[in-house]
């Protein structure tokens, strides 16, 4: 893309626009001041005002030959030629030179001769006076006139300005800021901004003539739908562009060194160095790549100069050095995320052989599970119906369900690789395709839109069915539950290719994918190897064998490419990608647990709702104890049988934890915005929660008093302060992202609930099997943990889950602890209540 140079703008073409109402009135006949002189004076004043904000022409165009770069170029050209001058959001991670892309849009369009000014939204105060103006002083949006205003880091805009920004983008109107004062306590403090002022005190609406461009590295839901969005893909998704970018940076460095009077060196890199650059994840994107290349050139020159000074290889000096850069000088381009990752396939080669064999998972699925699963279902339907006489029911609830939760932190979604539900779905697919039927492609857009709603609703119905109809102690109902889920998999598989059911609709799969983000293992591919050496994509699409190591494969059942996975949600550990890859790109890595949650996963409303509903299910399983805490008896209220009130109360309990967590977050943010001492409020909640666990408030009375201060223990300091009103505290991440901090606690709470079944009744499986055929008192061995040991493990799990959730919340909030104290208080209260229910 060409790099246009800005022309010196005239007063009218410099983006100074038309005069505002109060300014233009002074230029009407009858006034002494000449209109031309007034316009010139206004132009000079605005030019002086805009000078610190002016942006130069773009440094470079879009460099790269990948499909991502081509698409980005087309989007930039389309935005530049937009005659309606609609607002544009350039969205992407840090280091992608989004401001340069915005400059390309401005200087490639018809308004290239007007001013481009930039304002960092992180520096705006709560009133937005710098942007909108205040009183008689105009802001940038007015001073730029017909030019272009670039708002950088819109995601850092103070929350109070988001509604005003949306109106600016949607209606192209705004009001200057105003402040009303209110007396609170001893003095006057700033109370409200423009939109909060009384109607009669509001400044008039003004219309803007400038174009608005924006950049952001996080989503800003408040302005969705009112702006065009250009998503800049991160460099890790387009390693093919690394080749072009490093060439460009080397040319720039050579030109810079040649301009110093010496001959321009010829700089290039070796093939090994290029592969290393292409394999690196580039968390800092282009900015990091440019710095890495420059650092490598400097290091190589210094090494050559040192060798020459020491009598080594001949060199004409660092300034005239020329040569190829080896991988040794690109030591900083080692995978940053791989420093805390271990490739298990390289560390233990037999694991690679096992995972590439037919045993995993095909033989397990089609030579074992396919025959055992119908027997289990038949025993549930027609065998003994109570838990002490049905081995199938005991295996279902005492082993399978708890062990699924045990597997999440270690192997992620591995259960889905050997899932019996989809075994019969795949058998139906093979039968239909062998008969000549053609399965349909996925309706991906509809599945992504309606799939989460279906999954959530089905899981809610299952949890209600489990509680009200007592599925864990009723064998035939548990059998019908397995049949219903299997039927869903079979029906979807008979219509659509691969595993549509598993990816979008299966309630168990949705839960597994969510908890898999906590796993300490992952299946990923090396970006650089996939980009530079793969041309078939058999790991994704499927295909024939590629000797010497690529095996025949049907492709990924969930249509996930291992090099583009950002989390474990859509990976079932089936290892089809490992079997199909002929280049050794796929790795099974050991990593820090929960890495997905802070390194690129996508937050989802449906997933967060499912998480809190699963937490509500833990409380629901102890409904009689919950009712007993308020002095009521569950049987007397009809909460132990199938009654309408049992159903209604169960629904309320299922959704109560999520609503409580969301309400605490909203209340905490609102209190912080009003200047209320959130720390004191949360401190009192924490004190009550700790006293519930310890059974004595004396342990924490001193802390409670110190938090509440002069108001006494148990009081909430709720007096706004001038500092809080004038400069609101730093806000943590939005609730949708921060809510994932509860995930370790939900996992620990669920496992703690099922632990007595696994370590207690599960040890009697041989006696239960004998009782099912009439041998009630058979002298068979049994293993059962001491109740005190089980209680200790339950308490340990709860404390571990609460502590992990607190630490993860801090990581996700990216803000001081004090900014998300309501969430910490919520975790503490939920932990205390579960402690009371599980460990009475």
Main features:
alpha/beta, Rossmann fold, Helicase, Ruva Protein, domain 3, 4 domains, five-stranded parallel beta sheet, three-stranded antiparallel beta sheet, disordered N terminus, Sigma_54_int, AAA_lid_NorR, transmembrane, transmembrane helix
How would you characterize this protein structure?
Residues 562-591 form the 4Fe-4S ferredoxin-type domain. Residues 62-298 form the Sigma-54 factor interaction domain. InterPro entries: 4Fe4S_Fe-S-bd, 4Fe4S_Fe_S_CS, AAA_lid_NorR, NosR_regulator, P-loop_NTPase, Sigma_54_int. Keywords: ATP-binding, Cell membrane, Membrane, Nucleotide-binding, Transmembrane, Transmembrane helix. By secondary structure, this protein is of the alpha/beta class. It folds into 4 domains: 21-233, Rossmann fold (3-Layer(aba) Sandwich); 237-334, Orthogonal Bundle (Helicase, Ruva Protein, domain 3); 344-520 and 568-573, no CATH class; 608-676 and 720-838, no CATH class. The chain has 33 helices and 16 strands. The strands form 6 sheets. A 5-stranded parallel beta sheet has the order 2-5-10-1-11, covered by helices on one side. Strands 14-16-15 form a 3-stranded antiparallel beta sheet. It is globular.
């Amino acid at each position: 893309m060409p790099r246009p140079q800005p022309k010196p703008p005239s007063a009218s073409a410099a983006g100074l626009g038309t005069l505002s109402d109060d300014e233009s009135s002074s230029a009407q006949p009858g006034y002494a001041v000449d209109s031309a002189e007034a316009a010139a004076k206004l132009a000079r004043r605005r030019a002086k005002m805009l000078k610190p904000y002016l942006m130069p022409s773009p440094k470079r165009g879009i460099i790269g030959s990948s499909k991502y770069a081509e698409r980005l170029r087309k989007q930039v050209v389309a935005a530049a030629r937009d005659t309606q001058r609609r607002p544009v959001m350039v969205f992407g991670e840090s280091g992608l030179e989004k401001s340069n892309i915005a400059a390309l849009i401005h200087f490639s369009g018809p308004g290239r001769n007007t001013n481009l000014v930039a304002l960092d939204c992180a520096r705006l105060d709560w009133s937005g006076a710098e942007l909108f103006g205040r009183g008689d002083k105009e802001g940038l949006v007015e001073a730029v006139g017909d030019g272009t205003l670039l708002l950088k880091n819109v995601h850092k805009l103070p929350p109070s300005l988001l509604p005003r920004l949306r109106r600016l983008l949607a209606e192209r109107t705004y009001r200057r800021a105003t402040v009303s004062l209110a007396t609170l306590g001893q003095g006057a403090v700033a109370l409200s901004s423009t939109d909060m002022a009384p109607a009669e005190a509001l400044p008039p609406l003004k219309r803007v003539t400038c174009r608005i461009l924006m950049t952001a590295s996080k989503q800003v839901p408040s302005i969705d739908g009112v702006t065009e969005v250009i998503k800049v893909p991160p460099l890790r998704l387009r390693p093919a562009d690394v080749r072009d970018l490093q060439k460009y940076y080397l040319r720039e460095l050579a030109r810079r060194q040649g301009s110093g009077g010496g001959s321009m060196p010829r700089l290039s890199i070796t093939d090994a160095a290029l592969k290393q650059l292409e394999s690196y994840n580039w968390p800092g994107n282009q900015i990091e790549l440019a710095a890495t290349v420059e650092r490598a050139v400097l290091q190589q020159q210094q090494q050559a100069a040192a060798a020459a000074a020491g009598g080594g290889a001949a060199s004409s000096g660092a300034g005239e050095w020329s040569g190829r850069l080896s991988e040794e000088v690109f030591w900083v381009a080692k995978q940053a995320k791989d420093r805390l990752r271990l490739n298990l396939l390289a560390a233990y080669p037999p694991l690679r052989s096992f995972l590439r064999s037919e045993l995993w998972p095909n033989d397990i699925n089609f030579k074992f599970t396919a025959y055992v699963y119908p027997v289990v279902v038949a025993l549930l339907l027609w065998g003994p119906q109570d838990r002490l006489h049905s081995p199938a029911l005991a295996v279902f609830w005492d082993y399978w369900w708890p062990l699924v939760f045990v597997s999440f932190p270690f192997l992620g979604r591995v259960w889905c690789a050997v899932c019996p539900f989809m075994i019969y779905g795949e058998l139906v697919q093979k039968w239909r395709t062998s008969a000549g039927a053609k399965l349909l492609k996925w309706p991906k857009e509809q599945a992504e839109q309606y799939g989460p709603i279906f999954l959530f609703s089905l899981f809610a119905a299952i949890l209600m069915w489990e509680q009200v109809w007592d599925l864990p102690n009723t064998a035939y109902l548990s059998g019908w539950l397995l049949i219903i889920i299997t039927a869903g998999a079979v029906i979807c598989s008979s219509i659509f290719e691969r595993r549509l059911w598993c990816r979008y609709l299966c309630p168990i799969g949705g839960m597994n994918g969510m908890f898999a983000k906590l796993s300490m293992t992952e299946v990923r591919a090396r970006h650089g190897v996939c980009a530079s050496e793969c041309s078939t994509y058999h790991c994704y699409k499927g295909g024939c064998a590629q000797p010497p190591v690529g095996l025949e494969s049907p492709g990924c059942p969930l249509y996930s490419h291992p090099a583009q996975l950002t989390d474990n949600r859509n990976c079932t550990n089936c290892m089809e990608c490992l079997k199909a890859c002929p280049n050794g790109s796929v790795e099974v890595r050991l990593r820090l647990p929960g890495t997905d949650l802070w390194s690129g996963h996508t937050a989802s409303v449906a997933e967060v709702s499912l998480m809190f509903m699963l937490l509500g299910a833990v409380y629901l399983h102890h409904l009689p104890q919950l009712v007993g805490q308020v002095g009521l008896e569950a049987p007397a209220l009809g909460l132990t049988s199938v009654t309408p009130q049992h159903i209604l109360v169960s629904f309320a309990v299922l959704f109560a934890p999520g609503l409580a967590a969301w309400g605490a977050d909203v209340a905490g943010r609102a209190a912080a915005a009003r200047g209320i001492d959130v720390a004191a409020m949360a401190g009192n909640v924490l004190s009550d929660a700790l006293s519930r666990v310890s059974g004595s408030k004396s342990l924490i009375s001193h802390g409670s008093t110190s938090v509440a201060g002069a108001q006494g223990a148990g009081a909430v300091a709720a007096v706004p302060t001038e500092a809080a009103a004038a400069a609101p505290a730093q806000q943590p991440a939005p609730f949708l992202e921060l809510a994932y901090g509860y995930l370790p606690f939900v996992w620990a709470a669920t496992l703690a609930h099922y632990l007595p079944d696994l370590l207690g009744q599960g040890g009697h499986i041989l006696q239960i099997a004998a009782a099912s055929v009439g041998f009630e008192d058979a002298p068979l061995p049994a293993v059962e943990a001491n109740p005190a040991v089980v209680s200790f493990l339950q308490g340990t799990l709860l404390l571990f889950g609460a502590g992990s959730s607190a630490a993860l919340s801090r990581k996700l909030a990216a803000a001081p602890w004090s900014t998300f104290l309501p969430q910490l208080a919520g975790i503490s209260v939920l932990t205390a209540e579960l402690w009371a229910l599980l460990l009475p």
